[in-house]
Recover the amino acids of this structure.
C-alpha cells in the first residue's frame, strides 16, 4: 500500500500511460496514412477505413490495429493479383506544336501550309510576348493535359519522371535547365466500372530539370530524369513550362532567337482496364 501511494510510483505509472497513448495515436495516424496511400494508388475507396474510429487496442478487441492493417494488406494483394504491376508509358509535348500550338496552315491563304522555318519564327515571336513574363522575370508557358491525350484502355495515370529537351543554336555549352510546375487541378481516371474522374488539389511543386541540349546527353544518364513530380496525376488543368533566361547561370548562352523547339517528356505509369 505504501508503494502504491508513493508519488514517484504514480508519476512513473502516469508517464507510461501517457507515452503509450502518444505511441498509439501515432500508430493510428500511420494506419490512416497507409489507407489514403492505398486509395490513391488503386484509385478506389477503402470502405473499412471508418473502423479506425472504433479501434482502441493494438491487438485486442473486435476492432484492433493489427487486424485492420492485415485487412488492408489483403486488399492490396487482391488488387495486385487482378491488375498486376503498372505499365510505363510516355507523353511527348512540343512547345511549338502542343503548348503554343503554332498553326500549320495559313489562315490568310487557305489551304496553303506554313513552312517549318516560318513556324519557328512565329514561335520565337510568341516567346518574346511580354504577357508570358511572370513576376520573377521568367518566360512562363501555360498549358494543360487532358484525358483524350491518353489511351482509352488505361486508367490511373501517375507521373514517374520528367525529361525536357531544348533544340536550337544554343552555343557550345551543353548545360541548360527548364522548370515544370503543375498549378491546376489534377485528375485520375479510376479503375473499375465508374470512370468518373477523381479530382486532386495538391500543393504547387516545381521540378527543376536538367535539359537535354540538341539531343546530346553529354553527362551521366541519371543527370537528366527528374522525379520531383513522381506520383502526381498526368491529367492536370494547368501546367507551366518555365524558361529562366534571367538568372539561371547555365542558361546564360541561350537566346530566344536560337531556340527551334522545346519538348517535355512525361514518363508515367498506368493500369490497363479491359
Amino acid at each position: 500500500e505504501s508503494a502504491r501511494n508513493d508519488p514517484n510510483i504514480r508519476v512513473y505509472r502516469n508517464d507510461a500511460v501517457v507515452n503509450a497513448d502518444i505511441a498509439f495515436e501515432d500508430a493510428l495516424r500511420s494506419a490512416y496514412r497507409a489507407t489514403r496511400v492505398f486509395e490513391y494508388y488503386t484509385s478506389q475507396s477503402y470502405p473499412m477505413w471508418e473502423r479506425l474510429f472504433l479501434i482502441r487496442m493494438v491487438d485486442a478487441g473486435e476492432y484492433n490495429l493489427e487486424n485492420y492493417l492485415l485487412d488492408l494488406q489483403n486488399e492490396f494483394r487482391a488488387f495486385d493479383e487482378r491488375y498486376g504491376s503498372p505499365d510505363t508509358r510516355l507523353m511527348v509535348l512540343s512547345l511549338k506544336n502542343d503548348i503554343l500550338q503554332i498553326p500549320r496552315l495559313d489562315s490568310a491563304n487557305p489551304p496553303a501550309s506554313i513552312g517549318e522555318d516560318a513556324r519557328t519564327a512565329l514561335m520565337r515571336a510568341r516567346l518574346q510576348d511580354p504577357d508570358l513574363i511572370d513576376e520573377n522575370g521568367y518566360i512562363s508557358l501555360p498549358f494543360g493535359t487532358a484525358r483524350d491525350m491518353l489511351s482509352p484502355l488505361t486508367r490511373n495515370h501517375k507521373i514517374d519522371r520528367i525529361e525536357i529537351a531544348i533544340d536550337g543554336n544554343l552555343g557550345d555549352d551543353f548545360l541548360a535547365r527548364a522548370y515544370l510546375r503543375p498549378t491546376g487541378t489534377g485528375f485520375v481516371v479510376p479503375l473499375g466500372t465508374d470512370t468518373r474522374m477523381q479530382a486532386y488539389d495538391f500543393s504547387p511543386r516545381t521540378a527543376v530539370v536538367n535539359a537535354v541540349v540538341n539531343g546530346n546527353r553529354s553527362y551521366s544518364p541519371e543527370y537528366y530524369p527528374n522525379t520531383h513530380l513522381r506520383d502526381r496525376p498526368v491529367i492536370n488543368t494547368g501546367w507551366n513550362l518555365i524558361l529562366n533566361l534571367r538568372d539561371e547561370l547555365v542558361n546564360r548562352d541561350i537566346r530566344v532567337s536560337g531556340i527551334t523547339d522545346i519538348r517535355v517528356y512525361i514518363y508515367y505509369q498506368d493500369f490497363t482496364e479491359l
About this structure: Strands lie at 87-94, 139-145, 154-168, 177-182, 186-188, 198-200, 207-210, 212-213, 235-243, 259-272.
